Batch of 3 targets.
Target 1
Amino acid sequence: MPSLSGAQLDTVHCEASSTIIGETKSLSSQSSQGTGNILSGPEGETDTMSSQSSQSTLPEKEISIWLDEKEEQHAKRQTLNDTVSTLTDGRVSPLLSILNTEWDDISSTQQKYYTRKAREIFAATLSVVSSGQEEVLWESLRRESMLENEGTVTKKRKYFDVKSDLIDALIKAHNQAQSWQTKRQILSLFANDFSRLELQKMIPGLSKWRIDQARNHATETGKGQPILEKPIYRGKNRKRKSWALFRLHFKT
C-alpha cells in the first residue's frame, strides 16, 4: 500500500472528523421519527439510536466554535508538519495529533510518542539555527525557562463543555455502537480533551484501558479515522503447495 504524505494524512483526518461531527449533528436534529445512522464501523456495520426529542437540535453556534478551534489547530499542525518535512527532506513522519489534556493524565505510550515527536522537531529546528552545534545550543536552551513569555502562560482551553448537546450526542453514539472498533473511533474524537476522571463520569463503566486505547488511536491513526486492515499473505502455504507439486511431478 503506498504511504500517505503529511498533507494527505491531515486532509483525511480533517475529513473524517468533519464527517462524524456532521453525522452527529444530523442525529441530534432528528425528531421522534425512529432511528438514524450514527457511524459505520470498519466492518460495514451501522450503529443506530433513537432520537430523544424534537427539541434536541444542536446549537449551530456551539458546533461552529468547536469546528473553528479544530480547524485552527489542524492548520497549525499542518504548517508544522510541512515545515519539518522540508527541513528533514521527508525523513520525519508527520505529527498526527495535538496534546489537549494534562501530561500526567495520558498513558506512557502517548508520553513516549509526544516526547519523540518533540525531539524530532527540535532537532530539525536546531540543525537550521546552528548547524553542527545542535548539542551546544540545546544545552543552552535547557538552562533557560523555555516557556516564559512576558511572564504569562496561556491556560489551555477546552473544546467541549461536558454538559453540551454536542458531547451528549457523541456519548450516545458511543454507547449505541455495537463494536469496540466503532466505540474507539468515536471516543478518539474527544478522549484527549478531558481527563480520565471526567471521561469516566461522562461514560460510566469506561475503563482506563479503553480511554488509553482511544487516545492512542487519535495519536497513531488520527481522530475518528478507521484502522485500515493489513492484507494477510500466506506465503508459507504457497511454498508448501509448490514443493508438494514439485515432488509429485518428479515421482510420476
Target 2
Amino acid sequence: MTTIPTMAILTIFVLSVFVGFEVVSKVSTTLHTPLMSGANAIHGIILIGAIIVANGATSTLETTLSILAVVLATINMVGGFVVTDRMLEMFKGKGGKK
C-alpha cells in the first residue's frame, strides 16, 4: 500500500473547501432544504469513513486525529438533522399536529 504525502492531502482538502463553498453559495434559497437533506446523507458516509480510518490507526497521532474526526463528524451529522428538523417545523401550520 502506498502512502500519500501530507502536502498532497492538504492541497486536496483546501481545494475541496473552495469548490464546496462556491457550489453551495450559488444555490437559490428555495433549494436549501433539499440540499441540507442530501448533505445529511453525505455526513453519514463521512462518519463511516472516519470510523474506518480510526480502526486502522497505527500511531498515537493517527489515533488522536481519527477520534477527533469521528467526534466532529458525529456533531456535524446530528447538527444537520437538528437544523433540517427546525426548517421543516417552519412549514407546518400553527394549528397542525406534531
Target 3
Amino acid sequence: MRRLMVALVGIGALCTACGSSSSGGTDNPVVQSNSSPPTGGSTAGGQAPAITQTWTTFFNYQTSAADRQALLEDGASLGKAMAMGDKFAKAQHLEETVNVKHISLDDATHASVSYDILSHGTVLLPDATGTAVQINGEWLVAKQSFCGLIELGAGGKTVPGCSAAS
C-alpha cells in the first residue's frame, strides 16, 4: 500500500523527473526505443514516429534537463517546475520511462497521445492521455499535459510556470 501511495503522490513529478540522472546502481531501465511505433496503433499517419520520439525522449530519466526543456512547449518558463520533479524522483529513486500506446491527430498541429509511465519496468500511471503540439515544425509535449501531471503530484502546492496552463 505504501508503494502505491508513493507512486500516486509522485505521478505529477514523473514527467519532469524523466531526465534525472541515475546516481549509480546496476538496474537496467526498461526503455522503449524512440523508433518504436505506438503499441496500440496510430491514426497520426507519418507524424507518429516524430511524436513517439518526442514523448519517449522527454519521459526518459536519462535525458538531460536541457534536452527535456527543448521538447516541452514553453519549456524555458518551466525550469523550476522541472526541478521540483527532479528532486522528487531522486528522493524516490524513480527511473521513469514511457510506453506510447496510441497517437491520433486532432488537427494539423495537435495530437492526442495515450501512454503508460513506468519506473523500473513497473507501470506507475497506466492509460494516461496527453497532448503533443507542433511548433515550428517540431512535435513537443504540450505545456498543459506537463503541468497536469506535475500539479497532480504537487499536493496542492503552486507549481512555478504552470498557473497559466489550465
